[in-house]
Design a protein that fits this description.
By secondary structure, the chain is mostly helical. It has a single domain, classed as Rhopdopsin 7-helix transmembrane proteins (Up-down Bundle), CATH 1.20.1070.10. 85% of the residues lie in helices and 0% in strands. It is built from ten helices and no strands. The longest helix has 42 residues. The chain is globular.
Length: 309
Amino acid sequence: MNSFCGKELAPLILAARDDRFSNVIWFLCIVNIATAIVTVMGNLSVVIAIWRTPSLHRPSFVLLSGLALSDLGVGLISQPFFVAHNMVDSHNCSLFYVYFKVHEYFANQLIYVTFITLCATAVERFLALKIHLRYKELVTVRKTLFCLFLIWITASIREVWKWIHRPSAMIGGIILGFGASSTTVICYIKIFRIVRYHQTQIRNQIQIPHQGSQATIPNIARYRKSLRTLFYVVCFFCLSYLPWLFLGIAIKAVNKGITVEILFVSRIFYTTSSLNSCFNPFLYCWRMEEIRQAIKEQLKLLRWKNSGN
């Protein structure tokens, strides 16, 4: 085996040359190619619709565009390089190495970007409910964009640091992951408590009507719908990526190292987890009327431009 790959990729090379799983690997490549196309088209539509619709230039939709952008990266970079490193001739070790490393870098980076952005959306929704009178003053589009910039930079630095000192990068990733997951859970618990309190107040207002009560009900209803949508996104993300986490824990617990069989299972898990990025745009359109209408407007504008030409 070419020494360029070293011990790190030896199991991958052996897996690539194992005929037992070749048919399934080809099937996984086909699935990734098909879903990558849908992922790029769907998430690109969401990003364009948000940034070309002035009424959607709000912190919550900026964060949503951040989620769509990371999902776009999955379909545009991570999945194509997954297919490339599985289809390239494994005897061309240097090319195999490059494709695998690019896939590994962006797959891990985009997972962390999505995870931390989901945490940021939970914090944003909590602040919108907790400090609603000062929300527009404290939570601005510019600050939200800066937050997204920091998330991408942090995820990139972590991936680069893994090449320099992997143990410390892994420890930092665990701490960051635990902090983000704890923050997300705490925010949603507090949100549900506040919403329940507001619902009790609204019911009391309906029994004793007074001016302003009817204006409060639609706002709470709209907030609850957006909250449920984000909660569905979080749950879908967790269901998609928990197998990866369990596989990693199992590998560490058994301590037998990476085998051909484990690599085969990890490829299946990657393919199923990438479906999360493919389905999210459909979830946004289904649950969010503003996104749905914005995409329709952009499609109408595109048709008008094409017909004009």
